[in-house]
Amino acid sequence: MKFLRKLLDGQKKHFEKGGKLEKLYPLYEAPDTFLYTPDEVTEGASHVRDALDLKRMMVTVVVALIPAMYMAMYNTGLQAHRAIAGGALPLDNWQTQAMSWLGLAFDPNNWTACIVHGALYFLPVLLVTFIVGGNAEALFSVVRKHDINEGFLVTGVLFPLTLPPTIPLWQVAVGILFGVIIGKEIFGGTGMNVLNPALTARAFLFFAYPVEISGDKVWIAAQTSPDGYSGATWLAEAAVSGQAVLAEGLDWWDAFLGFVPGSMGETSTLACLIGAVILIATGIGSWRIMVSCALGTFLASLLLNVVGSTTNPFFDVPFHWHIVIGSWAFATVFMATDPVSAAHSNRGKYIYGFLIGVLGLFVRTLNPAYPEGWMLAILFMNVFASTIDYFVVRANARRREARYAA
Q: Is 90 left (phi over 0), alpha (psi -120 to 50) or beta?
């Protein structure tokens, strides 16, 4: 480590003001402050400085995402191998050739084969996201002459986890460019964005290329078909047939653990719960948003269960199924709690999370063409987060005025 420190110190003069690489200072500062704590000290009047900087905060979120990343690799391989064992054919692509070259069979009981096969799909998506999105972030930093913000470290992990394994890599590149530029940089960069960049990128792909990111052919990395092995997710099945199809065809614990088809990193409620514990214990994720989102989902599902519908069987799906199918857990733990685009006041977080829970479930249930509502619900509430905080602050001011007047 001393060698690396000396190497960075030796190159610093070239990037500082007056150096020949002065304009590229953000490219030097980013790895330096990521690997080592900045040596800058306060020169002005004394003030409070938190020991937790943005880099350490983002790294903690990435640590919380490790269980979801593990499931993205293992479950992607597992679902493909289950489909192939059930009659589907392997996809005609380089991942299948790589499995053959490695001598690994498409065996759902072989942990190594499952995780290697899944990694062949997940890691290229992750790599493209960081290369394209990271370079876009660096370009904006150089042009604006400010440090490279670490917000992309989390965005670059969240976005691939929301995608299906068969997503074309060029669409991944286009999507993350849209998310970084339109979702964040156009507002001024990290800390200034109104919308969650990862969800903005996901929403762009959903509406721009719906064939590659929706339907029943993209969630399993194999050639599924109605005559062979169905690739439909249980969320889509429930939207058509209601609770009965879940009770008859799916074990709740399998859905809780994440051994079902879906977006690569969103299927496991358990992995998200582990991430939630890490985020709450470190004080980085808001438990108020998570709890209120769960409460909103529970009350909305209870209301729809009571109202019922003769034409929409999804009304009858109870709360305990809603939280283990689709992306509810991932959205609640990692997307809704984005510290920039979410509400900031404590009371505002309760309102913000509760409305996401209600709105997300209503979109999921009432719109049969779009059974996954959390992406739209969170983006919609991102827009109103500042308004919620405004009215919370106004209400506090009025209460104080009334108290002093009395």
A: beta
